[in-house]
Design goal:
The complex is a heterodimer of chains A (540) and B (187). With 540 residues, chain A is mainly alpha-helical. Chain A contains 16 helices and 4 strands. Chain A has one domain: Cytochrome C Oxidase, Chain A (Up-down Bundle). A two-stranded parallel sheet of chain A has the order 1-4. In chain A, helix 2 packs across helix 6 and helix 4 runs antiparallel to helix 5 (163-194). Chain A is globular. By secondary structure, chain B is of the alpha+beta class. Chain B folds into 2 domains: 1-45; 66-176, Cupredoxins -  blue copper proteins (Immunoglobulin-like), CATH 2.60.40.420. In chain B, the strands form 3 sheets. In chain B, strands 1, 2, 3, 4, 6 and 9 form a 6-stranded mixed sheet that branches. In chain B, a hairpin with a 2-residue loop joins strand 3 (79-86) and strand 4 (89-91). The longest helix of chain B has 38 residues, at 3-40. Chain B is elongated. Chain B starts with a helix and ends in an 11-residue tail after the last helix. The mean pLDDT of chain B is 88. Classes of the chains: A mainly alpha (540), B alpha+beta (187). Chains A and B meet through helix 2, helix 6, helix 9, helix 10 and helix 12 of A and helix 1, strand 1, strand 8, strand 9 and strand 10 of B. The structure holds protoporphyrin IX containing FE and copper (II) ion (2 copies). Chain B: It is found in: Cell envelope. Chain B: Keywords: Copper, Membrane, Metal-binding, Transmembrane, Transmembrane helix. Chain B: Residues 76-178 form the Cytochrome oxidase subunit II copper A binding domain. Chain B: One of its GO terms (molecular function) is copper ion binding. Chain B: It comes from Bradyrhizobium betae.
C-alpha cells in the first residue's frame, strides 16, 4: 500500500511537466536548424533553448523520476511507511528551487554554457548554484533510501532484501558517488570563478571531473528502466523473473563498473595521456556485461510468461505474448532501441572508431535513441503501471496508451536513424545553423528534415502521454490493491550476504574510481600553468 | 511438479544461465583484446604525452605565434601543421597539405574549448586552452575538406568552419621551396 501518494505524485507530475517543456524545446531546435525551418536571425536563442533542454532532460527530469519511483519502491517493496517524509519534501522543494534558480539566467541568455558547462566558458553563478541545489535535493533521497532499508533490515534480520529495493538502493549509491565529480568541478572550480572570486580556471581538469559524472550518470538514468524490466514487466505480463540472483549480480556490476570508465569521454582530449585512455577503454568493455546478462534474463522471463499462456516452439512462443498489454509493448520497443543503441555504443567505446564520430550528430542521435528512446519509454510504462495506485483511479484510455507508445517508438526511429547518418557524414553537434546551400553540406539536408519530422511525432506522443495521465486523475475510482513486484521462479528464502548488502560493492566502486581517476586528477591539479582566463558568457 | 522435477528444473535453469554468462564474458574479453591489438598496432592512437601551453601568451612567443602557424615541410619529408582555434575561427582558416604524406597536426585554443573535425576523415580532436593537441594524419585523396569546430564555443559556434585543401605532393614541395609557413587563406 502506498501511504505517501501525494509525495510520489508530486515528483512524477513535476518530472513530466518539465519533460513536456523540454520536449517542446527539443522539437523546436530540431526544426529550426533543419532545412524546413526558417533562418533564425538570432542564433543565441538556440543556445538558450539547448541549455534549458539539456539541463532539464539530463539533470531534472530523470532525477525526479528516479526519486518518485524510489519512494514508491521503498513503500511497496518493503511494505513499510516511508521514514523521513519531511526530509523527502525538503528534497523535492530544493529541486523546485534549484530548477527555477537555474532557468532564470538561462532564459535571460546569461547562462548559455550548455548542460556540460565546459569552462573556461562561464555563465551566471545562479545557473550553477541551481544545479547544485537540484543535486543536493537528490542526495536527500539517497540518504532516505539508505535509512529506509536500514530500518527494514532491523525489523527483518537476515531476510532477503526485495529485489526492487536492492536495485533501487544500488542506483541511489551510484548516483551519490557519480555526482561527486561534477560537484567538485562546480564547487572547487566553476562557482568561485562565476562568483568573481577568481578569474582563471583549469579547463582540462574540469573536463576530467565532468567525465567522472558523465558516464555513470547514464546508468543512473537507466536504473528505473532496468528495475522495471526485472520487477514490473514479468508481473505485468504474467511471467516470473528467471533468476533473482542474476538480477542482483547485474545491479552490482553496474554499481562497480559504471564509475571507473568515464574518461572514454575524453578520448579526443589533450590533457589525458594515452595510458589512462586505454585503461578506461578496456574497463568500458566490462559495462556491456550487466546489459548482456539483463537481456538474457528478461527474454527468459517473458518466455516463461508466454509458455504459461500456452506458447510453444523454439520461437513460436513469442506469438503467445500479450501484445496488447502496454507493458509488453513498451518492453519490446525498449529492447529494440536498446539493441540499436547498444550497437552504436560499442562503436563509441572504441578509440579508433570514436575518432570518426566524436562530437558529431552521431552522438546526439545515439543518446537520444538510448536515453530518450529505450529508457524514457520505460518511464512512461512505469507511470502507467503506478498511476492507478497513486490516484486510486483506473487508466481507461488503453488504446490511447498503445498509440502513444507506438508513436514514441516510430518517432524515435525516424528522428535518430538519420541523426546517426549525418553524424557519419561529419556534421558537428550543437550548432544553431547549417548552410545547406553549401554543396558539401547539401547531402545532409534530407536526413535532417526526416529528423525534424520525427521530432514532431515525438512531441505528439509526449502530449498524448500527459493527456492520459491527466485524464487518469479524474477517471472512475477503483481499488487498485497493493502495488506488487514480480516474483522469481525460485523466490529466494535466503540470499548470500554479498548479494543482499551494498557495503562491499560501494567500497569497490570507490576504490576503482580512485585508482582510475586519482592519478590523472592529482597530476593535472598539481601541474603549474594550466589555468586559463575565464570567458564570461554575455560579457562584452 | 514433484520436488525432484523442481530440483531438475533449477539445475537446467542454472546451467543455461551459466552458459550465457560465459558467452557474455567471452564477448567482453574479446572486445578488450581487440582494442588492445588495435592500439598496439597503432591503428589510430591517442597522443602519448600531455603538453601544456599558456593561451594568454601564445600570440606573443613560442610555437603558436602567428608567423609560425600553417604547414611546413620538415627535413625528413613529413609535414607539420600548426593551428589555433579562437572564437570563432581557425588560424589558418584554410590549411593546405600534401597527399600521401605523414602529417602531424599540432593545435591549441586561444580562449575557450573548441574542436577540430575534418569531414570525411577520422581526424578529430579537442582544443582545450592550456594544452597542445597533437594528431597524426595522412590524406590519400586530393581535394577540399570542411573543417568545422565540433564543440560549442559560445554564440558564434555555428559559424566556425575552416577548410583543408589537400594538394598533390609535388605541388606542395614546389610551394614549400619558397620557405615560410604555407596556408590556402584567400585562395
Ligand atoms: C525524451 C526525450 C529527450 C531527452 C531525454 C533529450 C535529451 C537531450 C540532451 C541531454 C541533450 C544535450 C544537450 C547538449 O548537447 O548540450 C539534447 C540535445 C538535443 N536534443 Fe534532446 N532530448 C529528448 C528529446 C528530444 C526531442 C524529441 C528532440 C527533437 C527531435 C530533441 C532534440 C534535441 C536537439 C536538436 C539537441 C541538440 C543537439 C545538438 O545541437 O548537438 N530532443 N537532448
Ligand atoms: Cu560514457
Ligand atoms: Cu565551436
Amino acid at each position: 500500500m502506498l501511504a505517501n501518494r501525494k509525495l510520489i505524485l508530486a515528483h512524477f507530475w513535476l518530472a513530466f511537466a518539465v519533460f513536456g517543456f523540454a520536449l517542446t524545446l527539443g522539437a523546436w531546435q530540431m526544426f529550426i536548424r533543419s532545412p524546413i525551418g526558417t533562418w533564425l536571425s538570432n542564433p543565441e536563442l538556440y543556445y538558450r533553448s539547448l541549455t534549458a533542454h539539456g539541463t532539464v532532460m539530463g539533470y531534472v527530469f530523470p532525477t525526479l523520476v528516479a526519486m518518485g519511483f524510489g519512494y514508491a519502491i521503498s513503500e511497496s517493496a518493503l511494505e513499510q511507511r516511508l521514514v523521513g517524509v519531511r526530509w523527502a519534501w525538503a528534497g523535492f522543494w530544493l529541486i523546485v528551487a534549484g530548477s527555477i534558480m537555474a532557468m532564470v539566467p538561462i532564459a535571460l541568455g546569461r547562462a548559455s554554457v550548455l548542460y556540460t558547462f565546459y569552462p573556461p566558458l562561464i555563465g551566471n553563478v545562479f545557473y550553477y548554484l541551481g544545479v547544485v541545489l537540484v543535486v543536493v535535493g537528490s542526495w536527500i533521497w539517497v540518504a532516505l533510501m539508505s535509512v529506509n532499508l536500514r530500518v527494514w533490515r532491523k525489523a527483518h534480520p537476515g531476510a532477503p532484501v526485495p529485489l526492487a529495493m536492492f536495485a533501487n538502493v544500488a542506483g541511489s549509491y551510484l548516483w551519490a558517488w557519480t555526482a561527486v565529480g561534477a560537484a567538485l568541478e562546480l564547487l572547487l572550480q566553476i562557482i568561485p570563478v562565476a562568483a568573481g572570486l577568481k578569474n582563471t580556471i583549469d579547463a582540462g581538469l574540469a573536463r576530467v571531473f565532468f567525465s567522472w559524472t558523465l558516464h555513470a550518470i547514464v546508468y543512473f538514468w537507466l536504473m528505473p528502466t532496468y528495475i522495471a524490466y526485472y520487477t514490473i514487466v514479468p508481473r505485468a505480463i504474467g511471467g516470473r523473473v528467471y533468476s533473482d540472483s542474476m538480477a542482483r549480480i547485474s545491479f552490482i556490476l553496474f554499481l562497480v563498473v559504471a564509475m571507473p570508465i568515464g574518461m572514454h569521454h575524453t578520448f579526443a582530449d589533450p590533457q589525458v595521456g594515452a595510458g589512462f585512455k586505454f585503461v578506461h577503454s578496456a574497463f568500458t568493455a566490462l559495462v556491456a556485461l550487466p546489459t548482456l546478462l539483463t537481456v538474457f534474463t528478461i527474454c527468459a522471463s517473458i518466455e516463461i510468461a508466454a509458455r504459461l499462456r500456452g506458447g510453444r516452439g523454439m520461437f513460436g512462443w513469442t506469438r503467445a505474448l500479450p501484445w496488447d498489454n502496454p507493458m509488453m509493448l513498451a518492453l519490446a520497443f525498449s529492447f529494440v532501441m536498446l539493441g540499436f543503441g547498444g550497437a552504436g555504443g560499442l562503436i563509441n567505446m572504441s578509440y579508433q572508431l570514436d575518432a570518426s564520430i566524436h562530437n558529431t550528430q552521431w552522438i546526439t542521435g545515439h543518446f537520444h535513441l538510448i536515453f530518450g528512446g529505450a529508457i524514457v519509454i520505460m518511464y512512461f510504462a512505469i507511470a502507467y503501471d503506478l498511476w492507478p495506485h497513486l490516484t486510486g483511479r483506473e487508466l481507461i484510455d488503453i488504446r490511447l496508451i498503445r498509440t502513444q507508445l507506438w508513436l514514441w517508438f516510430i518517432g524515435m526511429i525516424v528522428t535518430t536513424f538519420p541523426w546517426h547518418w549525418v553524424g557519419i557524414l561529419g556534421m558537428p553537434r550543437r550548432m544553431a545553423y547549417f548552410d545547406f546551400g553549401d554543396p558539401a553540406i547539401a547531402p545532409q539536408a534530407l536526413s535532417v528534415t526526416f529528423s525534424a519530422i520525427g521530432g514532431f511525432i515525438l512531441l505528439t506522443s509526449g502530449i498524448m502521454f500527459i493527456v492520459v495521465l491527466a485524464r487518469g486523475m479524474r477517471a472512475p475510482l477503483v481499488d487498485a490493491g497493493p502495488y506488487r513486484f514480480a516474483i522469481a521462479v525460485h523466490q529466494p528464502t535466503t540470499v548470500p550476504v554479498a548479494l543482499n548488502t551494498h557495503a562491499l560493492w560501494v567500497a569497490l566502486m570507490i576504490v576503482l574510481t580512485l585508482t582510475n581517476y586519482g592519478y590523472p586528477i592529482l597530476t593535472l591539479a598539481t601541474t603549474e600553468g594550466t589555468s586559463v582566463p575565464a570567458v564570461y558568457v554575455g560579457a562584452q | 511438479m514433484s520436488s525432484e522435477d523442481a530440483h531438475r528444473s533449477v539445475e537446467i535453469a542454472a546451467r543455461v544461465e551459466r552458459r550465457w554468462a560465459t558467452i557474455a564474458v567471452i564477448i567482453v574479453v574479446g572486445m578488450a583484446l581487440l582494442a588492445a591489438f588495435a592500439g598496439i598496432h597503432r591503428a589510430t592512437m591517442p597522443q602519448p604525452r600531455v603538453e601544456i601551453t599558456d593561451p594568454s601568451r601564445i600570440h606573443l612567443s613560442g610555437e603558436f605565434v602567428e608567423s609560425n602557424l600553417g604547414s611546413v615541410l620538415e627535413a625528413n619529408g613529413n609535414v607539420t601543421v600548426r593551428a589555433i582555434g579562437q572564437q570563432y575561427s581557425f588560424t589558418p582558416a584554410c590549411i593546405v597539405v600534401p597527399a600521401d604524406t605523414p602529417i602531424t597536426l599540432r593545435a591549441t585554443s586561444a580562449d575557450v574549448v573548441h574542436g577540430i573535425l575534418i569531414q570525411g576523415t577520422n581526424v578529430n580532436t579537442m582544443l582545450v586552452p592550456g594544452y597542445v593537441s597533437e594528431q597524426l594524419m595522412r590524406f590519400t585523396r586530393t581535394g577540399d575538406y570542411l573543417m568545422p569546430c565540433q564543440e560549442f564555443c559560445s554564440f558564434g559556434h555555428e559559424g566556425m568552419w575552416g577548410k583543408v585543401k589537400v594538394i598533390d605532393k609535388t605541388d606542395f614541395a614546389n610551394r614549400a621551396k619558397a620557405g615560410g609557413r604555407l596556408s590556402c587563406v584567400g585562395q
